[in-house]
Specification:
Layout: E1 3-6, E2 9-16, E3 21-25, H1 39-42, E4 47-51, H2 68-82, E5 87-92, H3 94-105, E6 110-116, H4 124-139, H5 142-153, H6 156-161, H7 163-172, H8 177-192, E7 205-210, H9 218-227, E8 231-236, H10 243-246, H11 248-259
Parallel strand pairs: 3-4, 3-5, 5-6, 6-7, 7-8
Antiparallel strand pairs: 1-2, 2-4
Helix pairs in contact: 2-3, 4-8, 5-7
Length: 261
């Protein structure tokens, strides 16, 4: 898999398929592996580019604070590196915040936006969730952290059905010190970040949310979809915070139908 030397780091990315480009941006504490189930369903119908964000997975990092603007610049530089002047973007959770900012700053580089598990940043409920995540990352032993995060991320029915698999993933995805440090820096960034919904993004926008998302209430996702002139909402029933892991087929078809309109 390739690396891009951009903005003082080596950024790892996956580049699969051909056709219209879609950049997939993962959420809090995650790298491109969260899209491993989704990529095979996309590669026959478009070109999927999935980077590891700086400080996570196989990507490097630089000292100093992490900002949304810095992550946006990484994505724009990656597009330049792969020779893509304009693309659609899919961001999940924190990744949705990043691609929203990119679309507001550089609308000429955005075809369509898919915002998954995204709502109103800065809302009181969002602030409480960030406080809870900070306590978990700061205080929870590494061998227990993913278990608590999975309890927040996945729906109760999915946890009941896939408990043994989730326990295996808790061990496989146990964060090391570098990952925990990046997660704390991401939380600092999120706590300082407020995105104003100006309605200035001209691109079509799909807001994708699970009906049982604990971290982003569907009513917040609905408000976000209404904030865009060409926004629409798709609710996946019985699904939690990460539809691409929990309901891969349904989420993939919703994304492809939107992108191929």
């Amino acid at each position: 898999m390739p690396y891009a030397r951009i903005n003082g780091i080596r950024l790892f990315y996956k580049d699969v398929g051909s056709g219209r480009p879609l950049v997939l941006v993962p959420g809090f504490g995650a790298d491109s592996t969260v899209y491993n189930l989704l990529l095979p369903r996309l590669r026959g119908r478009l070109r999927a580019i999935a980077p590891d964000p700086r400080g996570l997975g196989r990507s490097d990092d630089t000292p100093g604070p992490m900002t949304v603007h810095l992550l946006v610049q990484d994505l724009l530089s990656l597009l330049d590196h792969v020779g893509v002047p304009r693309a659609s973007f899919l961001g999940c959770s924190m990744g949705a915040l990043v691609v929203r900012r990119l679309a507001a700053l550089c609308p000429e580089r955005v075809d369509r936006l898919v915002l998954c598990a995204a709502g109103r940043s800065g809302a009181p409920y969002c602030r409480r969730v960030l406080g809870l995540l900070r306590i978990l990352v700061e205080k929870t032993p590494s061998e227990e952290l993913m278990r608590h995060l999975f309890t927040l991320i996945f729906s109760p029915a999915f946890i009941d059905e896939r408990d043994e698999w989730l326990r295996e993933m808790e061990v496989l995805l146990r964060p090391d010190d570098r990952t925990r440090n990046t997660m704390l820096r991401q939380l600092e960034m999120l706590e300082a970040e407020v995105v104003r919904e100006t309605g200035a993004v001209p691109s079509p926008v799909l807001v994708l949310i699970g009906s049982q998302d604990r971290l982003v209430p569907p009513l917040h996702a609905e408000a976000l979809a209404r904030a865009y002139p060409r926004g629409r909402l798709k609710i996946l029933e019985g699904v939690g915070h990460h539809p691409f892991l929990e309901a891969t087929e349904e989420a993939a078809e919703a994304v492809l139908a939107f992108l191929e309109e």
